[in-house]
């Protein structure tokens, strides 16, 4: 039987606001080169790399190094710098210096910033703050209060919540938006695909925030459809295969996501809303003008085979799933 020919469609390339390429410091998990390869395979032309590297991305030198390595790959990396020095101090970084070096935003991803006064001062920088919440709903609640306080004091804060996964958090953000607060947020495909009932013995399904209930999953879907959730990011967080296959309590948080995200979103949302969440809104929030295009066979079905991934980590909760919408890389 002749192989079916699929119609190829050109779409705006995707932008991922939340990835971990692990370099510098953890190259055994991922490198900029392998991360870029995975991003390209997933239809992305730009990504925001998180600062929990070693050393932490809190200096102009590291930011310039990341951008330089991305340029060698002819790919756009928009580095996210740390909010506080070394992620674990209460001393804010020099926002202007890091932005001048190429940082597009600031986050303490990997170690939540829990000091309310320091968080407020970060918002008053008027730079884009990407908030990594672990005790998710509790932190979202007080950070919305700090955002409102900064606004009331005459500042123009920019706050984006990362990897939102719980109904209570989504309700808080929805209410804040209804009250006129210009907050944005993202979720990740695993939060509208899986629940805590999927978690097994090893770390294949382990991430932070952890998978929620069926109610949380439904709330994430509702938030995507009604506009409460602005962006789908991957939180691509590769580890070595050996690390991920440890028993659940001993396995590190994080799963890969770049090479499956488009298809998962497309099956749930359709093309227009997927592009809204993965192409248009990220560009708007980041203030970038990335006009690259990517080819996709929207009707093509494909099976996830992690051993064929470009990322170094070949462990994936999506293994064996049949998805629709195949990115075409010539």
Structural class: alpha/beta
Our measurement of the CA-to-CA distance between the termini, rounded to an integer number of angstroms, reads 24 Å
Proportion of residues in extended strands:
15-25%
The strand line-up of the biggest sheet is 7-8-9-10
Q: What is the gyration radius calculated from CA atoms?
A: 19 Å
| Total domain units | 1
Percentage of helical residues? 25-40%
CATH architecture: Alpha-Beta Barrel
Based on DSSP secondary structure assignment, what is the total number of beta strands? 12
Assign the CATH superfamily.
Answer: Metal-dependent hydrolases
Weakly predicted, low-confidence segments? none
Which CATH C-level class is it? Alpha Beta
Order of helices and strands: EEHEHEEHEHEHEHEHHEHHHEE
Discrete helix count:
11
Average of per-residue pLDDT values: 97
What form results from the Cα inertia axes?
Answer: globular
CATH topology: TIM Barrel
Structure description:
The protein starts with 8 loop residues before the first strand and ends with a strand. The strands form 4 sheets. Strands 7-8-9-10 form a 4-stranded parallel sheet. It is built from 11 helices and 12 strands. It has 330 residues and is α/β, with parallel strands linked by helices. The protein has a single domain (9-328), classed as Alpha-Beta Barrel (TIM Barrel), CATH 3.20.20. Helix 2 (60-72) packs parallel to helix 3 (95-101). It is globular, with a radius of gyration of 19 Å. The chain has helices at 32-41, 60-72, 95-101, 116-123, 136-152, 167-178, 189-193, 214-226, 241-244, 261-269, 271-286; strands at 9-12, 14-19, 44-49, 76-77, 80-81, 105-106, 128-131, 158-161, 184-187, 231-232, 293-303, 322-328.
């Amino acid at each position: 039987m002749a192989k079916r020919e699929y119609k190829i469609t050109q779409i705006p390339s995707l932008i991922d606001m939340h990835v971990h390429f692990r370099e510098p410091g953890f190259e055994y998990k991922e490198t900029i080169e392998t991360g870029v390869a995975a991003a390209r395979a997933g239809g992305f032309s730009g990504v925001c790399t998180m600062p929990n590297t070693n050393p932490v991305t809190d200096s102009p030198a590291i930011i310039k190094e990341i951008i330089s390595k991305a340029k060698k790959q002819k790919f756009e990396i928009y580095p996210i710098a740390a909010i506080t020095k070394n992620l674990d101090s209460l001393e804010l970084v020099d926002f202007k210096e890091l932005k001048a070096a190429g940082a597009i935003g600031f986050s303490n991803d990997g170690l939540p910033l829990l000091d309310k006064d320091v968080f407020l001062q970060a918002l008053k920088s008027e730079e884009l703050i990407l908030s990594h919440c672990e005790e998710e709903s509790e932190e979202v609640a007080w950070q919305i209060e700090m955002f409102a306080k900064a606004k009331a004091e005459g500042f123009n804060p920019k706050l984006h919540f990362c990897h939102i996964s719980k109904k209570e958090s989504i309700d808080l953000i929805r209410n804040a938006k209804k009250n006129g607060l210009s907050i944005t947020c993202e979720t990740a495909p695993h939060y509208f695909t899986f629940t805590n009932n999927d978690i097994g013995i090893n770390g294949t399904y382990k991430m932070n925030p952890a998978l929620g209930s069926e109610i949380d999953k439904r709330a994430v879907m509702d938030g995507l459809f009604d506009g409460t959730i602005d962006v789908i990011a991957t939180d691509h967080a590769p580890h070595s295969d050996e690390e991920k296959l440890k028993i659940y309590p001993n396995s590190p948080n994080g799963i890969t996501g770049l090479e499956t995200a488009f298809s998962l979103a497309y099956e749930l949302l359709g093309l227009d809303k997927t592009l809204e969440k993965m192409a248009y809104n990220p560009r708007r929030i980041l203030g970038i003008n990335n006009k690259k295009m990517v080819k996709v066979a929207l009707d093509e079905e494909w099976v996830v085979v992690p051993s064929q991934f470009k990322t170094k980590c070949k462990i994936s909760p999506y293994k064996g799933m049949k998805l629709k919408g195949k990115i075409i890389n010539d």
